[in-house]
Design a protein that fits this description.
Blueprint: E1 4-8, E2 29-30, E3 33-34, H1 35-45, E4 50-55, H2 60-66, H3 69-79, H4 82-97, E5 98-102, H5 109-114, E6 124-128, E7 132-135, H6 139-150, E8 153-159, E9 169-178, E10 181-189, E11 200-209, H7 212-218, H8 229-238, E12 243-247, E13 251-254, H9 258-270
Parallel strand pairs: 1-4, 1-6, 4-5, 8-12
Antiparallel strand pairs: 2-3, 6-11, 7-13, 8-11, 9-10, 10-12
Bound molecules: 1-O-phosphono-alpha-D-glucopyranose (G1P).
1-O-phosphono-alpha-D-glucopyranose binds near residues 129, 131, 132 and 169.
Length: about 270
């Protein structure tokens, strides 16, 4: 069973500047609700019991958002507003399952995952990237179903326009397992158009094996000054560990870029 999820939240959010110069992108409202709450709701609905937030000292506002009890208690005492009481109760519900770990240098997703090493209990865990909202169908839940059936790692996948491949991790696909799932032969982080092995992109939902930690410990920081989870996944695939690409049914919203962020609110407003 997949009971733990991790969410890297220490990123600088440069694609959303100037909004992110003083504000955590994961708290930015998307149709009136912080992006991170959509991600938490997806986890809870998928049966996740513990969510590990990887934050940095610069993103302490995220912790504050969930730990502002004395502020709420005071307001509720004087105002007794049912809406505020409901919102506070929701925060308390989230708080019960969240744990915080720190990544104070922005060294990439690989480094962020490594910070959770001593907290992961089972052989597999879920990782969600908060820039990626998937609406209409719970992607994590579908991936957990696939994992429970085949007992392997699973990554969310979507066709993207060939000319945009350098925005994503891109899969080299192997055989089709069934209608929605493919074996993965490899994965390349943000390739150029000419180097892209396909136009199937990695979207930010991963069911990763605990083995990824030993692979991450061996990974060296690249020229960019960061190391990517994609590279550790590629090493495991090279060592014949099975990874599946799951073509999810929900609608993907890219909240990590300005145009995508704006579109996300409009899409959610239509629901
Ligand atoms: C990250 C991953 C990339 C993946 C993308 C999905 O990139 O490194 O492989 O395709 O998320 O959103 P980032 O958005 O951090 O640049």
């Amino acid at each position: 069973m997949i009971k733990q999820a991790i969410i890297p939240l220490a990123g600088l959010g440069t694609r959303l500047l100037p909004l992110t110069s003083v504000f955590a992108k994961e708290l930015l409202p998307i149709n009136g609700k912080p992006g991170i709450e959509y991600i938490l709701d997806e986890c809870i609905e998928a049966g996740i019991k513990e969510v590990i937030f990887i934050i940095s000292k610069k993103k302490l506002m995220i912790k504050k958002y969930f730990y502002n009890d004395s502020f709420y208690k005071k307001i509720i005492k004087t105002k007794k507003d049912p809406r505020i009481i409901k919102e506070y109760k929701k925060l308390l519900k989230y708080k019960k399952i969240i744990k915080f770990v720190y990544q104070n240098k922005p060294l990439g997703t690989g480094d962020a995952v490594l910070k959770t090493k001593k907290f992961i209990k089972d052989n597999y865990f879920l990782m969600l990237l908060p820039d990626d909202l998937i609406i209409k169908k719970n992607c994590s839940k579908s991936m957990i179903k696939v994992h429970n059936r085949y007992k392997v790692s699973v990554m969310a996948s979507m066709n993207v326009n060939k000319k945009n491949v350098s925005r994503w991790g891109i899969f080299k696909l192997g055989k089709k397992l069934n209608k929605k799932n493919y074996f993965i032969k490899g994965v390349v982080e943000k390739p150029s158009i000419s180097n892209a092995p396909s136009n199937k992109a990695v979207i930010g939902r991963y069911i990763l094996p605990k083995k990824i930690f030993s692979e991450l410990l061996k990974t060296k920081i690249g020229e960019s000054g960061e190391f990517h989870i994609t590279d550790a996944i590629q090493s495991l695939i090279h060592k014949k560990k099975t990874f599946l690409a799951h073509n999810f049914d929900g609608k993907y919203l890219d909240c990590g870029t300005m145009s995508g962020y704006i579109k996300s609110s409009l899409e959610l407003n239509k629901l």
